[in-house]
Structure formats: C-alpha cells, structure tokens
C-alpha cells in the first residue's frame, strides 16, 4: 500500500467494437485517491460500464493504460495476472446472480474467494467468513442459504462480502443498487459508506442516477457518448454544472413542479446541437 499514488489512475482509455466503427470509450482519464470514492455517471450508451470493465480487466483497451498504486497490471489471461488484479480490484454487478453460483451456499461462495486470494489456513475460513458476512449485516442463517432463498438486497450484500473477501484496494460497483427498492438502496449505500470508513477500500460507483452518486461519491465524472464531458467534486459538479449534458441529467430528476415534457424538449434541443 502506498500514499504517494492514487489507488487507481486511468489514462486516455479507448475501446472500440465492430472493427473500430463503434467507439464505446474515447480518451477517458481520471484517478481515484486511496480510500476515495468516484461516481461515473451517464445514460445507457455513455460508455460508463465499458469503462468499469476496462478497469477490472474484463475488457482490454485499444489504447490507454490502467494503473493501480502506480503500477500497471496487464490484462492478459494468465492465472497469475487474473489473481494479481483480483487482489487489487473487485467488481460488484447490478445483478448478483451474475457472480453468485445458484447451486452454492453463501458460506461456500465466500470460502471460495478466501481460498483463491488469501493465505489463510482452512481452519481460519469460518472465522473470516463470519466476519465478512457480519460486516454486511448477514449471519449464520444466510451463510447456509442458497442465493434463491435470499432477497435481492441480501444477495447484493453477499456479492459485496464476496468481493471484500479478496481484500481488494478498490471496489467497482456497476449499477449495484439499480435493481433494488428505494429503501433497500439506501441500506446498501449506507453499508458501502460504513465499509469504506472501516476498511479504507476505495469505491468506483457506476450509475445513471445522480442522486445515488451524490450520496456515495466524493468525486464524479460525467460521460456522454464515450467521453468525459465534466468532472470534479460531486458537490461542485451537481450544484454548479458547467456542461449542458450534466444540466440535462439534473433536469431529468423528478421533483415538485417537474414536467417531463419540458425535459423531453430539452433533450431534443441538446441532441440537435451536438455535432
């Protein structure tokens, strides 16, 4: 661990598909301080999820680099590189069914990560597993359960515990509360804030929801059509937005006196003005 480098820094990331005809991410750069939190905001198609996948190594950039604690970790498919990256950064999906084996109990799912990414003796697994589940508000009943026996909020807590089992420096959460009821969203966001304070893990929170990002992120980058159009502290960007796309996103949040017809017209005007 080092205090002289951000926990992660991305430089000029670019990712295209369909032989270069579709640009998903273009010249994206930002950094996250050790123990910090960054929100990546944008609508569907903005490139935010592709950026997250590039950071965790699920996609390989066409250009640009990703650094962790000042070091670049390759995106090759070798077991050594995958483990090296997994011990630094973990991804929490929107739908925990993408990361939880439906045939595996919660306790076994956490044990699997401990076995892969720690040097704990097998006899220590149960203690560490119970600590991790307790950290996310789950107990022995949930440890013995299968994913289908849990609520959506509980499954997301399991996914977070499983990610923390690798003792990463960074958690990347891709729309991690989008599928949950509002009250459960608040519980998970509070949980993430507590975990960040207790462990020092940094967060990258990918979301289309500016209010969620306001709650959980110190800093924010706003993406549109694969590029960063605005960035800065969350308070500054959301209170004093400079880019018209950021202002459009903010105007789309329902509130007293809000008229969706006005928002639709503003969107048409904005898109008409985009080159």
Tell me what the structure shows:
With about 280 residues, the chain is α/β, with parallel strands linked by helices. It folds into two domains: about 160 residues, P-loop containing nucleotide triphosphate hydrolases (Rossmann fold), CATH 3.40.50; about 60 residues, no CATH class. It is about 40% helix and about 25% strand. The chain has eleven helices and ten strands. Helix 3 crosses helix 4, helix 3 runs parallel beside helix 6 and helix 10 runs antiparallel to helix 11. The longest helix has 18 residues. The radius of gyration is 19 Å and the shape is globular. The N and C termini lie far apart (about 45 Å). About 40% of the residues are buried. The mean pLDDT is about 90.
Sequence-ordered SSE layout with sheet pairings:
Layout (H helix, E strand, L loop, with lengths): L7 E10 L4 E11 L4 E5 L6 H9 L6 E6 L2 E2 L6 H8 L2 E4 L13 H12 L4 H14 L4 H4 L8 H13 L5 E5 L7 H18 L2 E6 L2 H7 L2 E6 L2 E7 H6 L4 H8 L8 H14 L2
Parallel strand pairs: 3-8, 3-9, 6-7, 7-8
Antiparallel strand pairs: 1-2, 1-4, 4-5, 9-10
Helix pairs in contact: 3-4, 3-6, 10-11
């Amino acid at each position: 661990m080092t205090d002289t480098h951000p926990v992660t820094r991305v430089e000029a990331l670019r990712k295209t598909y369909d032989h270069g005809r579709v640009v998903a991410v273009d010249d994206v750069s930002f950094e996250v301080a050790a123990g910090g939190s960054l929100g990546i905001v944008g609508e569907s198609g903005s490139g935010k999820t592709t950026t997250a996948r590039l950071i965790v190594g699920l996609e390989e950039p066409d250009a640009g680099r990703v650094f962790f604690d000042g070091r670049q970790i390759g995106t090759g498919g070798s077991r050594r590189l995958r483990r090296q990256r997994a011990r630094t950064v973990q991804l929490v999906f929107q739908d925990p069914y993408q990361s939880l084996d439906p045939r595996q109990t919660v306790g076994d799912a956490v044990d699997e990560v401990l076995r892969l990414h720690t040097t704990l003796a097998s006899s220590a697994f149960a203690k560490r597993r119970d600590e991790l589940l307790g950290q996310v508000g789950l107990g022995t009943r949930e440890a013995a359960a299968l994913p289908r026996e849990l609520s959506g909020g509980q499954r997301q807590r399991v996914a977070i515990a499983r990610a923390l089992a690798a003792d990463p420096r960074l958690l990347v959460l891709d729309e991690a509360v989008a599928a949950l009821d509002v009250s459960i969203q608040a519980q998970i966001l509070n949980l993430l804030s507590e975990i960040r304070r207790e462990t020092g893990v940094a967060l990258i929170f990918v979301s289309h929801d500016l209010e969620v990002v306001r709650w959980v992120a110190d800093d924010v980058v706003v993406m549109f059509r694969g590029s960063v159009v605005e960035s800065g502290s969350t308070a500054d960007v959301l209170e004093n937005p400079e880019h018209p796309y950021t202002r459009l996103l903010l105007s789309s949040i329902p509130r007293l006196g809000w008229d969706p017809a006005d928002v639709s017209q503003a969107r048409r005007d904005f898109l008409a003005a985009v080159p």
